[in-house]
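Annex B. Sample input.
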Amino acid sequence: QVQLVESGGGLVQTGGSLRLSCAASGTIFRVDAMGWYRQAPGKQRELVATITRAGTINYADSVKGRFTISKDNAKNTVYLQMNSLKPEDTAVYYCHFTGATIQGYAYWGQGTQVTVSS
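Annex B, continued. Sample output.
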């Protein structure tokens, strides 16, 4: 079993910044990718950014140039630095993990709320 502990969400004004963190713990043999997805009220969950074991990064077009994903391999932790936040970035942000573990391959975090006020 893998636990994903997210932190860093909150309320911020338009143009502000937040930094999300997600730490994976448990019996992990290999991390293939970690990333962030978000879900706004009434909308489907969508990809925000992912980073692979090799360091390949993928961003949603809507966040390119504003968000930066990074990772700390030693800590099995992924970060999302969010700058120039807009009201449309308001959503619950979910951490996602894929990799080799003692049980299962893909896991989701519990989600952290990000609210951007106009």
